[in-house]
Amino acid sequence: MAKRKKEDQVTPLPVATMEDVARKAGVAISSVSRVLSGHPDVSARMAKKVEEATRLLGYEPDILAQSMRSGETRTIGFIITDISNPLFAQVAQSCEQELRKMGYSMILMNSDGDEATEAENFGVLRRRRVDGIIASLISEKSPTVKTSLQNLRSPLVLLDRQISGFEYGSVTANHFSGLRDAVNHLINQGHREIAFVSGTADVLITRERLRGYKKAFADNAIPINETNIRLGAFSDEFAERQTYLLFSSPSVPTAILTGGVGATAGAIRALRSLNLAIGSDVSFIAIDEWPMFDVVLPQLSSVYRDPDMIGRESARLLLEIMRGAKPRKTVIETHFIIRDSSTNKPRTKKQL
Question: Which of the four, 20, 203, 262, 326, has the lowest number of CB atoms within 10 Å?
Answer without folding.
Answer: 326
